[in-house]
Design goal:
Length: 164
């Protein structure tokens, strides 16, 4: 009969050493187990190496102060333009007509916004004309600081428009 000898017993240090599969860090930067599919970038709405955009749409911040168009209006025009681009294959002429309409609407909205901003700027430094039928008292003239601020605002708006 052959005698079977048991293998040498493992020392406590050897049994505590991590296996090769356990040695690999399985937690992401936030401490979540990456082996859990619920922690996948798609499930968390975060981009990974294979995606450019999050799977879950993030809330966009409101338009920057002084923006000519509210964020939601810009988003609607962008969506319409994207719709036109996507529809080009099925209806090239319709897609181009839609893109033309989007550009026309955007130009009109920007024109209105610039004119409104100009009226506001003008009101900050230009004395208001007396209303008809009222005494023609001389209006207060703005001081140098008001004029400096108005000039700064005109320059800022003009430079923004030149860099569109």
């Amino acid at each position: 009969m052959t005698e079977v000898t048991p293998k040498a017993s493992k020392t406590p240090e050897a049994s505590e050493a991590p296996k090769a599969s356990e040695a690999r860090d399985v937690r992401d930067a936030e401490g979540r187990d990456v082996r859990d599919v619920r922690n996948a970038p798609e499930a968390l709405g975060k981009p990974d190496d294979l995606t450019e955009k999050p799977a879950i749409a993030s809330h966009k911040p409101p338009a920057a102060p002084g923006a000519l168009l509210p964020r939601e209006e810009g988003d609607k025009l962008t969506a319409r333009l994207e719709h036109a681009v996507v529809g080009f294959v099925d209806g090239p002429r319709d897609a181009v007509e839609e893109a033309d309409a989007v550009l026309q609407e955007l130009a009109a909205r920007l024109t209105d916004a610039v004119q409104s901003r100009r009226r506001t700027l003008r009101g900050s430094w230009q004395p208001a004309a007396p209303a008809e039928g009222t005494s023609a008292e001389p209006a207060a003239t703005p001081d140098t600081e008001q004029l400096r601020l108005a000039l700064r605002d005109y320059r800022e708006l003009t430079e923004r428009l030149l860099h569109i």
